[in-house]
């Protein structure tokens, strides 16, 4: 993939160059969700986009049932509010992993700003059989 262009619905027909690939250990998955952080250009702010329905094309989920997609706009001057991040865990129905998810969201946001990203996406975001 490195050095090639990845063509998706978001990239257009020319695609975007792949400069990094992240590899992870295979896990025993219990639940698949979707999580991303991107720019909301209309509102000039970062926005978390998330759903309890991950591991598939999020565009298809959004097309079939937009109510399954949640968003959380973040004030770019103050960063994410902890109570809003806790609500994300509640919306995803993973209260047992609330503190882990808040930590992940905060670190995603910090990475997003530090690296001048357009988007960070985790699909699927998972809980494992081991918890």
Notable characteristics:
131 residues; alpha+beta; D-amino Acid Aminotransferase, Chain A, domain 1; four-stranded antiparallel sheet; two-stranded antiparallel sheet; 6 strands
What report would you give on this structure?
- The model has no long low-confidence stretch (mean pLDDT 92).
- It contains 3 helices and 6 strands.
- It is an alpha+beta fold and 131 residues long.
- Strand 3 (29-40) and strand 4 form a beta hairpin.
- The chain has helices spanning 58-64, 82-91, 98-114, and strands spanning 5-6, 16-17, 29-40, 45-51, 70-73, 119-128.
- Helices cover 26% and strands 28% of the residues.
- It has a single domain (27-128), classed as D-amino Acid Aminotransferase, Chain A, domain 1 (2-Layer Sandwich), CATH 3.30.470.
- Strands 5-4-3-6 form a 4-stranded antiparallel beta sheet, covered by helices on one side.
- The longest helix is centred in the C-terminal third of the chain and has 17 residues, at 98-114.
- It is globular, with a radius of gyration of 15 Å.
- Helix 2 packs across helix 3 (98-114).
């Amino acid at each position: 993939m490195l050095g090639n262009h990845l063509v998706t619905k978001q990239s257009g027909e020319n695609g975007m160059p792949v400069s990094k690939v992240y590899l992870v250990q295979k896990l025993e998955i219990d639940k698949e969700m979707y999580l991303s952080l991107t720019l909301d250009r209309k509102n000039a702010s970062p926005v978390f986009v998330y759903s309890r329905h991950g591991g598939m094309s999020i565009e298809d989920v959004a097309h079939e049932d937009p109510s399954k997609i949640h968003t959380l706009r973040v004030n770019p001057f103050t960063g994410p509010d902890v109570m809003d991040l806790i609500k994300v865990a509640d919306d995803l129905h993973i209260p047992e992993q609330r503190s882990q998810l808040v930590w992940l969201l905060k670190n995603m946001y910090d990475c997003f700003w530090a690296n001048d990203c357009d988007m960070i996406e985790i699909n699927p975001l998972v809980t494992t059989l081991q918890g």
